[in-house]
Amino acid sequence: MAEKITIEELLARNKTVMASHKPEPTFQFLAENQIAVAKTLVVACADPRSDPSYILGLNFGEAGILRNVGGQVKPLLNDILALDNLITFKQVMVIHHTDCGSTHFTNEQVRGVLTQRDPRAAAEMEVESVDFGAVSDLPNSVVRDIKFLKESKLVREELKENIKGYLYDIEKGSLEEISG
Ligand SMILES: [Zn+2]
C-alpha cells in the first residue's frame, strides 16, 4: 500500500497524464453522434481492494461506477436516481466485499467520536440517528441493499428487474452472487 504518496507527487503524475490526454467527448457530442453511453451501473466500496475496474476487467467507459463506504446503496440513492435520469441504465451490480472496513467499526463508535469532538455540532447533525455505514452482517448487507432498491418507489420498475448483488472475496478474487 502506497501510504507515503503525497498530493504534490500525484499532481506531478497528472502532468504526465495531461501530456498524452485526448479530449473526452461531451454529452452533446455523444448525443449528436448517437454514441451509446455505458448502461451498466456498478455500486461498490471505496476501498482500493474493491475496485470495480479491476474486479470486472472493465474497459474505459464500460460502466458508471458509484463508490462509498461499503458500497451501500441507501446513501447513494439520490446519485443513482439522478444518474439513471440522465443515462437510463439497463442493469445494476451492487458489490460488497470481504474484510470491508465497514465491518471494523460501529455506528456507535463514530457517533461517540463526533460527539466528543463537538457535542453541539453532533447534536445538530443528529448523529444518534445517523447510519455511518457500519456493517455487521456480510453478505446480508447485499440482500438488504438489493431489497432497498427494489422496494424504492422511485427506482424504475424496468431497472429493478436487473439489479444483482454480489460479495467479492478479496483473497480469491471471486464474485459470489447473493440473491435476496
Ligand atoms: Zn469496503
UniProtKB/TrEMBL annotation:
InterPro entries: Carbonic_anhydrase, Carbonic_anhydrase_sf. Coiled coil: none annotated. Its cofactor is Zn(2+). Zn(2+) binds at residues 45, 47, 97, 100. Gene3D superfamilies: Carbonic anhydrase. Its EC number is 4.2.1.1. Transmembrane segments: none annotated. One of its GO terms (molecular function) is zinc ion binding. It comes from the Eukaryota. Keywords: Lyase, Metal-binding, Zinc. It is an enzyme of class 4 (lyase). SUPFAM superfamilies: beta-carbonic anhydrase, cab. Signal peptide: none annotated. It catalyses: hydrogencarbonate + H(+) = CO2 + H2O. Binds 1 zinc ion per subunit. Belongs to the beta-class carbonic anhydrase family. Reversible hydration of carbon dioxide. This is Carbonic anhydrase. It comes from Pseudogymnoascus verrucosus.
